[in-house]
Amino acid sequence: MENSMGVGLLAVCAVSGSVALIALQVQKRLLSDFMKKIESELQGLGTSQKYKTKKKVQFAEDVIEPSSNNREYRRSKCQAKTDQGFDMPANRQVLYKGLVQHRMHRGCSAL
């Protein structure tokens, strides 16, 4: 009886030891995978912020560069917008023209 209890105790120690070793290896592997993922995310954020290229603005060739007096340029643009022709009924044309003139007057009054 003592012999069978000793064998049982030895089996329990062997099984529990192997379970403990397996759990330790799984924990190490999960921790290392997690740390690699965290490091890659942190490095990805650092490199994207560090080496981010600045966007360059390119204007079209037909863009008119205003003269040194920007007020005259803006006034001419505002005037050109109010003088546009309309392809709509007369009553709507009058209403729309009044709205546009009001907006242009409000926007161009700061000049």
UniProtKB/TrEMBL annotation:
Keywords: Membrane, Transmembrane, Transmembrane helix. The keyword Transmembrane helix applies. The chain crosses the membrane at residues 6-26. It comes from the Eukaryota. PANTHER family: TRANSMEMBRANE PROTEIN. This is Uncharacterized protein LOC115726670. It comes from Rhodamnia argentea. The lineage of its organism: Eukaryota, Viridiplantae, Streptophyta, Embryophyta, Tracheophyta.
